[in-house]
Design a protein that fits this description.
Blueprint lengths: L1 H9 L3 H10 L1 H7 L9 H8 L4 H19 L23 H14 L1
Length: about 110
């Protein structure tokens, strides 16, 4: 089930999931391989494809509900934005001038 969740969250196909378990420590830890032999994409396909889309959707919704409730990751009740205003001269925006402005700002910061 963890492999199915990782596959859906990262929008991977089965071959990419097989590669991710070799390449990504986060993937192998999340799937909980714990030093065991990696799983082939054929085995992933065999078992993950048996999980119905509706079941996976319900599972993802429940995980999100738990995360919002337990860890207060996001309560979806408020939004914080940054509305910083910087005084600057306004000029006609040509491509070259916009590029030069970006270069100047990158050098300053």
């Amino acid at each position: 089930m963890r492999a199915a969740l990782y596959k859906e969250m990262k929008k991977l196909n089965y071959r990419e999931l097989e590669y991710a378990q070799y390449d990504s420590r986060v993937c192998s830890t999340f799937i909980k391989l714990d030093g065991r032999k990696p799983i082939s994409f054929e085995a992933y396909y065999k078992y993950i494809s048996q999980i119905k889309g509706e079941t996976l959707k319900k599972f993802m919704i429940e995980i999100n509900r738990i995360m919002i409730k337990e860890t207060a990751v996001e309560d979806c009740k408020s939004l914080r934005t940054d509305s910083t205003v910087v005084e600057t001269d306004i000029h006609y925006p040509t491509n070259n001038e916009l590029t030069w402005d970006c270069i100047k700002r990158a050098i300053v910061f």
